[in-house]
Amino acid sequence: MDIKEVIAVINQMQADGVIERYAIGGAVGATFYLEPVATLDVDIFVAFRSEPGSLLLSPQPIFDYLEARGGTMEGEYIVLSGWPVQFLPPTSLLVEEALGQAVEKDVAGTPTRVFTAEHLAAIALQTGRAKDKARLLQFVEAGALAAPRFQAILARHALVDAWQKFERQFLSDAP
Amino acid sequence: MSFDLQKILESKRALRRNLAARPVAEKLRMLDALRERELAIRGRAVHSDSSGLREEPVPYRTKPA
After folding, report:
1. Using the beta-carbon criterion (under 8 Å), do B34 and A127 form an inter-chain contact?
2. What is the pLDDT of residues A62-94, one digit of tens each?
3. Which of A35, A92, A108 sits opposite B25 (nearest CB)?
4. CB–CB of A91/B61 below 8 Å?
5. CA distance A40 to chain B (A)
6. Which ipTM was obtained for this model?
7. Shortest Cα distance from B57 to chain A (angstroms)?
8. Which end of chain A is more exposed for a tag (fewer CB within 10 A), N or C?
9. Quick check: A30 and A42 in contact, CB under 8 A?
């Protein structure tokens, strides 16, 4: 089980032209900025290529490529180096922006791209499950967010009200 | 060792800061180990459908309605 191997395989897939660009999101992405928190899968956001003659975007070339290199399909996941990996298209403007503005990171000599801390936090706010709120709190408590950049993202994606509600719920000293 | 709650909480915060500041490669290795542990624990857990609250796992990529 080795996430670094997963990253290396995805880098090779990008170098081979199967995907244009990718970025790590979710709990694994958050680990680049915070303390590690257990997760069961790896979320990879990709700009899918459309297949020739089709307007539909398809992950099939990704699955074909990875299966030929030892990956095994399990439902919506493909298992690489012991990790279930999910390839996700950017299905909202926020995630699309996060993919476009993802930053280069180095994992002991292996390059990769990761959502910014501010985008990960904004996506957590937008998604709003209990574990997303917990992650957002982690970002705040760790001081991992650049406030002007985070506020600008919230404003661009109509999340200011949601943030104010979150602040009242979790960051206010008042009962 | 102390049972002073403030000291305990502060030491937890310090541990979290320390973990967050470690090199990414080391933190990713920790994720590998955490996942192995979680799978082992889940494998031993006795599941019950009738007890406990459960949040439906809505994929976080979807925009809430």
Report:
1. no
2. 999 999 999 999 988 999 999 999 999 998 999
3. A108
4. yes
5. 6
6. 0.86
7. 8
8. C
9. no
